[in-house]
Amino acid sequence: xxxxxxxxxxxxxxxxxxxxxxxxxxxxxxxxxxxxxxxxxxxxxxxxxxxxxxxxxxxxxxxxxxxxxxxxxxxxxxxxxxxxxxxxxxxxxxxxxxxxxxxxxxxxxxxxxxxxxxxxxxxxxxxxxxxxxxxxxxxxxxxxxxxxxxxxxxxxxxxxxxxxxxxxxxxxxxxxxxxxxxxxxxxxxxxxxxxxxxxxxxxxxxxxxxxxxxxxxxxxxxxxxxxxxxxxxxxxxxxxxxxxxxxxxxxxxxxxxxxxxxxxxxxxxxxxxxxxxxxxxxxxxxxxxxxxxxxxxxxxxxxxxxxxxxxxxxxxxxxxxxxxxxxxxxxxxxxxxxxxxxxxxxxxxxxxxxxxxxxxxxxxxxxxxxxxxxxxxxxxxxxxxxxxxxxxxxxxxxxxxxxxxxxxxxxxxxxxxxxxxxxxxxxxxxxxxxxxxxxxxxxxxxxxxxxxxxxxxxxxxxxxxxxxxxxxxxxxxxxxxxxxxxxxxxxxxxxxxxxxxxxxxxxxxxxxxxxxxxxxxxxxxxxxxxxxxxxxxxxxxxxxx
Amino acid sequence: xxxxxxxxxxxxxxxxxxxxxxxxxxxxxxxxxxxxxxxxxxxxxxxxxxxxxxxxxxxxxxxxxxxxxxxxxxxxxxxxxxxxxxxxxxxxxxxxxxxxxxxxxxxxxxxxxxxxxxxxxxxxxxxxxxxxxxxxxxxxxxxxxxxxxxxxxxxxxxxxxxxxxxxxxxxxxxxxxxxxxxxxxxxxxxxxxxxxxxxxxxxxxxxxxxxxxxxxxxxxxxxxxxxxxxxxxxxxxxxxxxxx
Lengths: 545, 244
Ligand code: HEM
Ligand code: HEM
Fold this sequence. Notes:
The structure holds two protein chains of two kinds. Chain A has two domains: 1-69; 70-244 and 262-537, Cytochrome C Oxidase, Chain A. In chain A, 72% of the residues lie in helices and 1% in strands. Chain A has helices at residues 7-30, 35-56, 74-100, 115-147, 156-177, 190-212, 221-240, 259-294, 301-314, 330-342, 344-358, 362-367, 369-391, 394-400, 404-433, 442-475, 487-527, and strands spanning 243-245, 253-255. By secondary structure, chain B is mostly helical. Chain B is 48% helix and 0% strand. At the A-B interface, helix 4, helix 6, helix 7, strand 1 and strand 2 of A face helix 1, helix 2, helix 3, helix 4 and helix 8 of B. One protoporphyrin IX containing FE binds at residues 184, 270, 274, 278-279, 318, 321-322, 340, 343-344, 347, 384-385, 388-389, 391-392, 397, 400-401, 406, 409-410, 413-414, 417-418 of chain A.
């Protein structure tokens, strides 16, 4: 893979790695009495490993000019394998978290493995590790196909992919050591946040530079979503993470905002992490891989436009539905509720557009588990956005907030929508990338599909039940006008559901492991035949335009 | 030209498209967040509100480090059952010095906004060492190491300074005496103890929270923090209750 880099790029890569390694050394030395020092060492080790990888092909001859007539897919290939690794890691931790709620002593009296530390390791592992890598890998693939242009160079995609994974490693190893800002989905401390900004800007520049060289006059819908994902996540990330470190060689920082302003900023961030990370990016995936796989054009171009701008504009108002009945001023709560309900329109426009795209290809859905993954994802997308808009109504939220109902909603979206669309897209793209007629085993895809379906349904139904029961128990009064149940009564009532959820999660995890095996075996099939990169040709998915 | 015609043009320009996304996505946040900093009624006045002592702040940081907020909220909503279960609903001013806030989003355990003084120090210590010793059905993990770890004291001045930079009114004396005050608050009969109530008010708890007067452990800090929750100001008890 290094041989694909020009000699200049190899040199530049080496400089970057050496600089990064030195930075790591400084962190390690200056922060030796603080956990930031450990992260310094982590940076040093990662840089050295990459220097060795680079050294391996450093003196190979310059790659031929002919490469410029081909797409550059190496980063996408690595990104997909890494995404599957993160999926297994993140879901394993998720299931461990779930079992801890059944058997609380599964922490083994160690600090690093206690619930509060591994729970963010789960959320970061699945959202940023699995989801983020899948988004980066597929975005590079889709961007090139829909613009008929090769990525602008061979170095910056690697910088983005590897730099992003360094961020994930710092984040998660930090939680185990107790480094966290406590802001949900924005837990990493200030230095990791700064690093991510650098990576993210490079990411967007790749987009702009490729688009500038496109051979298609129009930017395809999938790219609108990927671009909105990158841009808005940057805005959210920078604002919500503004903080004052206690010293430049210490990990700890204090958020720039406090109390009610901090709460609103955090949930403006949090809800839109859902919107632009867990929704927009994956809609980008769906808008490319689903029509490709089904062999049908997107149902409606106009519906795409309406739903895209509806989502981009309205989601940003909805964050305050996380703060109903709190000390947040009432007018902000009302705005959040109103926009959340209106959001149903663009959300369902997208889901409808996806399902109607499949109209006429139902026989393929029946026979092809890959396409079925995508179809179920669109259905779960419709379901979880309906549920979300419903939960955003103040009266409903008074029951659902703080309960497992939220967790059920989260995983209807996360398992049913995010994970299913990702697995479907991966099963579609892996044979294309590695030039195989199909995945190693279609049968294993079937297995994965049914395990994922069973896991998701068990998980979500368990949490709906427990959440509603919990919410009702908390507000039930007896005849004498006092509360009927103690808090502990409600906790005891959760036990069977927590067990069911942990079991459902285990099925889902098993499916992911099978998927990883299938991907690896497909790559092995490809290793037996020499394959080059795919030539740049005019065949974008933009058939509907 | 129809709106779709316009769009047909827009999607041919990468820069135009980028700018349009930024504009469309910025409006919501600007309208909802910016006024929270300028409208006075957003945060109620509470003249008696005090800042966290260094020991309590250290405890708060351990609360964050251990991820307690993942299971415990600190925000009592304006709902009748919540007020009856946990106490007066939370006011914005009560988390005015919370950088970041810890309102939480999930109640696997009960709300803690008013847990201060609800239980004894001994109860908290036993509960944190092994929750199931005091609440048989509890799902909370054990935190035995809080008792074993000495509290990291040296940087407390830096912590207070950083808090001041983001707007918490710590005085120079409070910053200068941060380490002393932390030791003093956990060591009732020591020389260091005298300054604590001088700088943070007579009502400040000065006790050997973990039951061991000699050493300042992480347990001291966490329990000191838990015991002050809901007690930095009286404002919530004075506001007429109008829960729904
Ligand atoms: C094997 C599959 C999974 C299992 C067993 C699992 C389990 C869990 C558990 C036990 C929690 C903590 C709930 C609590 O505190 O009560 C949780 C939280 C969460 N998980 Fe998962 N999870 C899985 C997959 C995923 C995936 C694929 C995603 C995202 C793409 C995800 C996103 C989240 C999020 C965002 C939360 C935080 C929810 C909140 O704060 O309300 N999970 N998960
Ligand atoms: C129209 C779309 C949606 C709306 C209006 C919506 C609304 C909501 C509401 C009202 C809550 C509960 C807040 C609370 O009481 O604390 C929530 C939580 C959440 N939703 Fe959605 N939702 C939508 C779609 C989605 C989708 C597609 C996902 C994808 C994974 C998702 C992921 C989450 C997560 C992770 C949380 C938990 C946040 C936390 O407490 O940590 N939502 N959403």
